[in-house]
Specification:
The chain has about 375 residues and is an alpha/beta fold. The strands form 4 sheets. A 10-stranded mixed beta sheet has the order 5-4-6-7-1-8-16-15-13-14, sandwiched between helices. A two-stranded antiparallel sheet has the order 2-3. Strands 9-12 form a two-stranded antiparallel ribbon. The chain is globular and about 60 Å long.
Amino acid sequence: MNSVYITGMGKFLPGSPVSNDEMEDYLGKIGGKPSKTKRLILEKNQIRYRYYAMDKEQKSLYTNAEMASLAIRDALERNGNVADHDIGFLATGTTRGDVLLPGFASMVHAESGLPVMEIASHSGLCAGGMHALKNAYLHIKSGEHEVAISCASEFLSREFKHTKYEAQGIHGSSRVPFDTDFLRFMLSDGAGAAILQNTPSSVGQSLRIEWIDNKSYANKYDVCMYSGMSKEDGNQSWLDYSSIHEAADHGVLNLKQDVRLVNEITKVGVIRFLELVEEGRFDPKAIDWMVCHYSSHVFKEEIFRLLELGGVTIPEEKWFTNLYTKGNTGSASIYIMLEEMLNSGQLSEGEQVLCVVPESGRFQTSVMLLTVLGSSSESTHVTQ
């Protein structure tokens, strides 16, 4: 079995950073009234800036597939040693593609202009990017391909246009419920991509993938973050309504978070973390960087508390996130964090990087262990 290396990472963040005060300039004010819950949500997540792929007139500036393609091109430019014709496999992850069909990977493949190759689409929520990464990892490890690309992209802001809610009969003149308004001030847009090879890069740094562990707990939990179903109507699918208009009118197509369940995500993630320690998969004391995709600052505090209860401590100075300045970009977040780390020169040879991605959809956890190879001083590319 081959060793697998991440030899290049790229990102694409649309437009300029959007501050908290500007958010409703882009998303719009529902019924012309500012959100009453926005301040509370932002106090908890502590996100200061994020990016939107639409303008203040709520017109899309890019497609989701285009953003993914731009992140791929950024990764290829930074790598420098991989030509388009070298790539044999493309795996993508996203929460919602631009179209219902075909799959997101088909649209990204076409947009990127890459040659004929094998592709795979992964849909879902935050873990979708890790699912794509593991698929690419296994293709390289098995020898099926020598070079693969994994990417994840999110265009979530257009889910939250004020006009969509105003057109829904279920809300009428009243405000949208908290489970819907909550996500309007949590999620943002962006894309990331990774190049995977069976040899490390000859220039700059590479990240050797030691293992990737994905676990679903859907058999133990109800749906927590969702779209296309109604808990109020007995978990009825949007396809079972008499028409798409009726489903939309009932708010079934809205992206929602069951805030009564969402705190369970920290417990699920920490339990799997401690299990991996018990299984001897990694030594917490040997971890140099903890890269955890927590969607809100409040979850970080809870993770710290639960880890300490489990007898494990990873000092805060070892934790890395850019949530507060890049926003929560769902499945793309882990790529955007690793891109910043790899391309900013802050990693040292031999360091171990542990990546953790919890997902609240119906609860799953992805964990990945990386080892840094090469010196950052050899790199010819610096992050913008």
